[in-house]
């Protein structure tokens, strides 16, 4: 009995010793850690002049992300604005060598369109939401305006539009503008279509509208008459499970429209163009600045896609090129532009940027693959046609 009690006492003493040792270990580790931490703090006492020359520098990644909106400034060939689909608005004053963010204090970082007023370069309009209907798209919260070349911004409205694809400003009146609103990417809404403002964006009037499933995708003026406007409607919706570039669903309602009374009444332009039965998707348009009756279009469709040309101000159309590498690949790369000094020279943005000098019959790729840039939009200086700016998926406009 005595031996058993002795063994039990020894066992209890051993357990107690182990518990004491375990409880003491964290304190010892903490003391050691505090000692090491104290030693680390002593590093902060080094003289500042020993590291005063150190500077932060960017080491990457350098891919800027998808960019759609881009514009130069009339009379200022060194100034450009660009906007990433999820990175705000940027400005350069040295021909693109350096860029500075000018939109970071705004609540929306996604931008799909921007326009500089031709009659007043201090006035900039920005439409938020990328409007590309991609599986990884970003939406916005309406229109913004700057009256001091991007130093400050004011929110204007169209908050529920979510995706703004194009902004058109009257060449002689900075307060008159048209806005193409694509609308919700995943469902119906009524704040979509083409809107007009006559007071610098203080109020907007919906002037071209089909239904809650059809938005607007592009705009262009007749260069000789700003009362004539061309507009593209696009009836598409992307599904949340979409894994490719493109729309999940297309419905009837899209197409090209024209107004000759300043945007009040609109007429569909259909002769020669694909329609709903051909699976019409998105259209990009460009009016030749030096020949107002000549219009080009890159048309996405499941049948008869390609580059189209009209020589009668949109009344009839002829497909001049059916190579899908050039035209008809949508819904992202639908950028098209006509040279200001030659109506037969056009440029089209796609996985490669293409140039034609024979009115769209043949093209030569001059910038693009390899590289995977996927070029989106093209801006050409009216004063210096040799200055061209491209927006691309890698966020690097080229001028």
Tags for this entry?
about 10% helix; mainly beta; four-stranded antiparallel beta sheet; 28 strands; 1 helix; about 400 residues
If you had to describe this structure to a student in words, what would you say it looks like?
The structure is a single chain. The protein has 399 residues and is mostly beta strands. The protein has one domain (67-392): Methylamine Dehydrogenase, Chain H (7 Propeller), CATH 2.130.10. It contains one helix and 28 strands. The strands form eight sheets. Strands 1-2-3-4 form a four-stranded antiparallel β-sheet, with no helix packed on it. Strand 5 (111-116) and strand 6 form a beta hairpin. It is globular. The termini are far apart. The model is unreliable at 15-43 (pLDDT under 50).
Rough shape? globular
The number of distinct structural domains comes to 1
How many whole angstroms does the radius of gyration measure?
30 Å
Strand content: 35-45%
Structural class: mainly beta
Q: What order do the strands of the largest sheet run in, or round the barrel if closed?
A: 1-2-3-4
The fourth-level CATH homologous superfamily is YVTN repeat-like/Quinoprotein amine dehydrogenase
Largest sheet: 4 strands, antiparallel
- Percent helix: 10-25%
Integer average pLDDT:
86
- Judging by the overall fold, what is the CATH architecture? 7 Propeller
* Element-level helix/strand string: HEEEEEEEEEEEEEEEEEEEEEEEEEEEE
CATH class: Mainly Beta
Low-pLDDT runs:
15-43
Per DSSP E runs of 2 or more residues, the count of β-strands stands at 28
């Amino acid at each position: 009995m005595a031996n058993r009690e002795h063994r039990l006492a020894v066992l209890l003493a051993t357990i107690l010793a182990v518990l004491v040792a375990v409880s003491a270990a964290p304190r010892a580790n903490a003391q050691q850690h505090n000692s090491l931490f104290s030693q680390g703090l002593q590093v902060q006492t080094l003289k500042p002049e020993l590291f005063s020359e150190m500077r932060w520098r960017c080491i990457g990644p350098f891919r800027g992300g998808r960019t759609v909106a881009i514009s130069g400034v009339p009379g200022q060939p060194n100034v450009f604005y660009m906007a990433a689909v999820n990175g705000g608005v940027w400005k350069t004053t040295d021909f693109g060598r350096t860029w500075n963010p000018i939109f970071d204090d705004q609540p929306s970082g996604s931008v799909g369109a921007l326009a500089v007023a031709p009659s007043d370069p201090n006035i900039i309009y920005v439409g938020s939401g990328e409007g590309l209907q991609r599986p990884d798209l970003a939406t916005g919260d309406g229109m913004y305006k700057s009256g001091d070349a991007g130093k400050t911004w004011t929110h204007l409205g169209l908050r529920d539009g979510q995706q703004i694809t194009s902004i058109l400003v009257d060449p002689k009146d900075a307060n008159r503008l048209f806005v193409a609103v694509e609308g919700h990417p995943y469902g119906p809404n009524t704040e979509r279509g083409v809107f007009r403002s006559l007071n610098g964006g203080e109020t907007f009037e919906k002037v071209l509208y089909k239904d809650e499933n059809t938005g607007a995708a592009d705009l262009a003026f007749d260069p000789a008459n700003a009362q004539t406007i061309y507009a593209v409607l696009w009836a598409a919706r992307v599904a949340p499970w979409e894994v490719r570039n493109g729309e999940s669903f297309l419905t009837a309602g899209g197409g090209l429209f024209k107004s000759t009374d300043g945007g009040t009444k609109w007429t569909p332009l259909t002769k020669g163009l694909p329609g709903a039965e051909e699976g019409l998707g998105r259209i990009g348009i460009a009016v030749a600045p030096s020949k107002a009756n000549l219009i080009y279009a890159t048309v996405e469709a499941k049948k008869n896609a390609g580059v189209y040309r009209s020589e009668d101000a949109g009344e009839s159309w002829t497909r001049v090129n059916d190579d899908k590498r050039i035209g008809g690949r949508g819904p992202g790369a639908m950028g098209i532009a006509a040279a200001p000094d030659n109506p037969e020279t056009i440029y089209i943005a796609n996985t490669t940027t293409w140039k034609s000098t024979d009115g769209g019959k043949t093209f030569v790729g001059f910038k693009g693959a390899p590289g995977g840039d996927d070029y989106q939009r093209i801006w050409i200086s009216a004063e210096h046609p040799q200055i061209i700016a491209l927006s691309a998926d890698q966020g690097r406009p080229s001028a």
